[in-house]
Amino acid sequence: MDFVSIRIITGDVARLVAFYERATGASAVWSTEDFAELRTASATLAVAGTRTVPLFAPGAAQPADNRSVILEFRVEDVDSVHRALADVVEDFVQEPTTMPWGNRSLLLRDPDGNLVNFFTPVTAAALDRLAR
After folding, report:
1. Closest Cα to residue 95, out of 79, 77, 115?
2. What are the residues facing 5 on neighbouring strands?
């Protein structure tokens, strides 16, 4: 089994896609006005509008309601990501901080309030653990 994607349901697909394009540097591939994907080498972030929810199960997902999942992106330099997003992020939950497990981490909320962690492994142990 391969874990290949995560999907965010939103009330404003274009706004959220624009945020993630800027934050990741990836360009979205649009299937419809209600569905786009940002593909990276290891996984895909799908963004879908509320009109897609009934296709699976009516009422199963609600936009801007996540309080338990953190989306994580490994980046080359978390401090430069922080600087690049300073003018578009309204809620930095934690400024760049080196965590006990060896990652330098930036925690923020996207425009829908979802937690997003950008991190860079900075210790030898973290680099070894995350080696691909």
Report:
1. 79
2. 44
What is the pairing mode between strands 91-98 and 70-74?
unpaired
CATH of 1-62, one of 3.30.720.120, 3.30.43.10, 3.40.190.10, 3.40.50.1580: 3.30.720.120
Whole-model pTM: value is: 0.93
Question: What CATH number was assigned to the domain covering residues 66-132?
Answer: 3.10.180.10
| CATH 3.30.720.120 boundaries in the chain | 1-62
pLDDT tens-place string over residues 54-80: 999 999 999 999 999 999 999 999 999
